[in-house]
């Protein structure tokens, strides 16, 4: 059952939080010259047209990246500059944002010559589009289950690892599957930096993931949750990220970025952050 299509959601507030964290983590990891093996376990199709029928049907980007883009000259944190730069590269020559990059495209934009990216995508059509995009990039696409695929690839050849785990959570068991796969991955590569995205739902299903992580052997797990001011009565009211082994200083810098999203002109949300599990 693969019915989720990210094109309906690309560029929403959750994508902004996730891709901002991804960009900051990579740039902080790149302060050291050693190569990074990057993995994207649930990659989607890489490039999204914000004018497409799917994007316009939900108009989620209007309340996410479009608000941030319109507000880009008044963002206080300098760390937004690399995010704005990537968005500008994908929308060259246009004042308005019409193209939104997905996670593999964000990672690809940050990669240095010795870094690598392996992207997993199980949906046949999404995987086909991803492979089409990747053919002109230095990206390996695997049409297989992302959690199992990641575990098969660890430890990587390169000295360092960054893995983004961003499932669609269409199946309730995915919350527990993610926690279990994360622990196994960490046991194979303890120094890796892992980013896990999850939805904040009125049903509270995300607590299964957070509790399983808390009950595990994992250490150094940082958590960022944003909650929409104008949240719907049911469904997704916010978005969460777990960052395992965040680079030193990431927490303050990322919190400053999210502060910029908090104002009504930018996105309009509140932020909770801190260690889920300390060092
Ligand atoms: C939330 S979307 C990914 C969005 C993307 N990471 C981004 O930030 O642009 C989740 C993706 O996971 C894919 N997917 C679902 N189950 C999967 C699995 N078991 N392994 C790999 N991909 C899967 C879906 O088809 C969907 O494209």
Q: How would you sum up this structure, described in words?
A:
The chain is an alpha/beta fold and 279 residues long. The protein has a single domain, classed as Rossmann fold (3-Layer(aba) Sandwich), CATH 3.40.50.150. It is 37% helix and 22% strand. The chain is built from ten helices and ten strands. The strands form two sheets. It has an eight-stranded mixed β-sheet, with helices on both faces. A two-stranded antiparallel ribbon has the order 2-3. β6, α8 (174-188) and β7 form a beta-alpha-beta unit. The longest helix has 17 residues, at 13-29. The chain is globular. Bound molecules: S-adenosylmethionine. The site of S-adenosylmethionine has 20 residues, from α1.
TL;DR?
The protein has one domain (6-277): Rossmann fold (3-Layer(aba) Sandwich), CATH 3.40.50.
Give the secondary structure arrangement, pairings included.
Blueprint: H1 13-29, E1 36-40, E2 47-49, H2 53-58, H3 65-70, H4 80-90, E3 99-101, H5 103-110, E4 116-120, H6 124-134, E5 139-142, H7 146-153, E6 160-165, H8 174-188, E7 193-201, H9 206-214, E8 221-228, E9 236-244, H10 250-262, E10 269-277
Parallel strand pairs: 1-4, 1-6, 4-5, 6-7
Antiparallel strand pairs: 2-3, 7-9, 8-9, 8-10
Helix pairs in contact: 1-5, 1-10, 7-8, 8-9
* CATH class designation: Alpha Beta
Biggest pleated-sheet summary: 8 strands, mixed
Question: What CATH architecture do you see?
Answer: 3-Layer(aba) Sandwich
Annotated CATH topology: Rossmann fold
What's the rounded overall pLDDT mean? 95
Give me the side-by-side strand order of the main sheet: 5-4-1-6-7-9-8-10
Question: Fraction of residues in helices?
Answer: 25-40%
**The CATH superfamily title:** Vaccinia Virus protein VP39
Our Rg estimate from Cα atoms comes to 17 Å
The number of helical segments is 10
* Cα distance spanning the termini: 38 Å
**How would you sum up the global shape?**
globular
Structural class: alpha/beta
Q: Please, how many domains?
A: 1
Helix/strand order: HEEHHHEHEHEHEHEHEEHE
Low-confidence stretches: none
Give the strand tally: 10
Heterogens: S-adenosylmethionine
Strand content: 15-25%
């Amino acid at each position: 059952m693969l019915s989720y299509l990210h094109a309906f959601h690309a560029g929403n507030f959750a994508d902004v939080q996730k891709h901002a964290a991804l960009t900051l983590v990579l740039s902080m990891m790149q302060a050291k010259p050693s190569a990074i093996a990057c993995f994207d376990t649930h990659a989607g199709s890489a490039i999204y047209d914000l004018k497409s029928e799917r994007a316009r049907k939900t108009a989620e980007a209007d309340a996410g990246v479009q608000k941030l883009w319109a507000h880009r000259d008044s963002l206080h944190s300098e760390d937004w500059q690399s995010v704005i730069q990537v968005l500008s590269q994908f929308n060259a020559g246009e004042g308005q944002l019409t193209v939104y990059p997905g996670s593999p495209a964000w990672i690809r934009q940050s990669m240095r010559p010795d870094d690598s990216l392996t992207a997993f995508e199980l949906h046949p059509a999404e995987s086909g589009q991803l492979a089409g995009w990747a053919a002109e990039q230095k990206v390996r696409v695997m049409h297989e289950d992302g959690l199992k695929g990641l575990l098969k690839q660890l430890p990587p050849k390169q000295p360092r690892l960054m893995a983004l785990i961003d499932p669609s959570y269409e199946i309730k068991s995915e919350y527990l599957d993610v926690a279990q796969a994360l622990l196994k991955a960490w046991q194979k590569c303890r120094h890796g930096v892992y980013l896990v995205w999850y939805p904040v739902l009125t049903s509270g299903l995300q607590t299964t993931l957070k509790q399983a992580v808390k009950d595990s052997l994992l250490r150094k797990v940082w958590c960022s949750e944003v909650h929409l001011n104008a949240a719907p009565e049911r469904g997704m009211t916010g978005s969460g990220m777990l960052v395992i082994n965040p680079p030193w200083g990431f927490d303050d810098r990322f919190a400053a970025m999210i502060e910029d999203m908090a104002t009504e002109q930018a996105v309009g949300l509140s932020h909770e952050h801190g260690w889920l599990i300390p060092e």
